[in-house]
Amino acid sequence: xxxxxxxxxxxxxxxxxxxxxxxxxxxxxxxxxxxxxxxxxxxxxxxxxxxxxxxxxxxxxxxxxxxxxxxxxxxxxxxxxxxxxxxxxxxxxxxxxxxxxxxxxxxxxxxxxxxxxxxxxxxxxxxxxxxxxxxxxxxxxxxxxxxxxxxxxxxxxxxxxxxxxxxxxxxxxxxxxxxxxxxxxxxxxxxxxxxxxxxxxxxxxxxxxxxxxxxxxxxxxxxxxxxxxxxxxxxxxxxxxxxxxxxxxxxxxxxxxxxxxxxxxxxxxxxxxxxxxxxxxxxxxxxxxxxxxxxxxxxxxxxxxxxxxxxxxxxxxxxxxxxxxxxxxxxxxxxxxxxx
Length: 340
Ligand code: EAX
Prior knowledge:
Blueprint: H1 4-24, E1 41-46, H2 54-69, E2 74-79, H3 87-96, E3 101-103, H4 128-135, H5 138-145, E4 152-167, E5 182-185, H6 189-197, E6 201-204, H7 210-216, E7 221-224, H8 226-231, E8 240-256, H9 257-261, H10 265-299, E9 303-305, H11 309-315, H12 317-327, H13 329-337
Parallel strand pairs: 1-2, 1-3, 5-6, 5-7, 8-9
Antiparallel strand pairs: 3-8, 4-7, 4-8
The chain binds (2R,3R)-2,3,4-trihydroxybutanoic acid.
(2R,3R)-2,3,4-trihydroxybutanoic acid (EAX) binds at residues 48-49, 87, 104-105, 160, 186, 207, 224, 228, 249, 251.
InterPro entries: DctP_fam (IPR018389), TRAP_DctP (IPR004682), TRAP_DctP_sf (IPR038404)
GO cellular component, one term: outer membrane-bounded periplasmic space
GO molecular function, one term: carbohydrate binding
């Protein structure tokens, strides 16, 4: 029926149609990325800690995983030591879309949303495993999702760790020993009230200013986990360490919603998967360093004091009464019972 000539024209038209579908993506597949499938996307991720802290090592691992999962199309640049600003600056930059990612403690998030306050209550978590169970479960994920209203996507909870008090004035064996000491804290109302309740003089300060303030003696002490006390060399300016473990600092890995929503689904999935795999890797590093570095701190002449934590737990009970209304007694009870 068809002449050879007409058949040839049909095949030609069919070829043109297939070519058009392939080029314009009308065939249904989405371009590999909003910036064009042949371009490399670079993510800048910032944090405030030292280049050898698990935050840095874990983020480098995250970058390797993302690059593998996207065949090299998405790369991650890690900026440590507050190179991109302090934690509040970076959270604001994510909201504006001027920075792609950040790894911060939950405490500074209190200035943006009240949802995370429950995690900043003193002694709310029994141990790291219990914290991971709550954070990685329904309660933690629900609170992480609340960040979307702030223009931020919380990918997973990494770990900063249990925080302990250091100072250069006197050994701290019991809460009363904190009386009158100027202690630097993160910018968080619960943290400030907790130390005020114990008689200290709390001073909010960005992490990047902390070492100099300790060195100059403008503050007497601070509180942070063992890996930070070692990697930020606080042992050079702080000779008393009391293992109070008064706060657990979770560290959500955050991405700008504006940036993330512009990525192709396959890149979004790669970033989500990598954030979980690297989270577990980073948590293991924190656990290793908490054990390894305590001995090193003693070798540097730090007086390490094992305190009776029940004295501190009793002293901070008024903080729960004060914040029960704002946080919600039912949420506090849920976090406690979820650890049983
Ligand atoms: O998130 O500020 C602090 O003491 C935190 O431990 C630090 O920002 C890491």
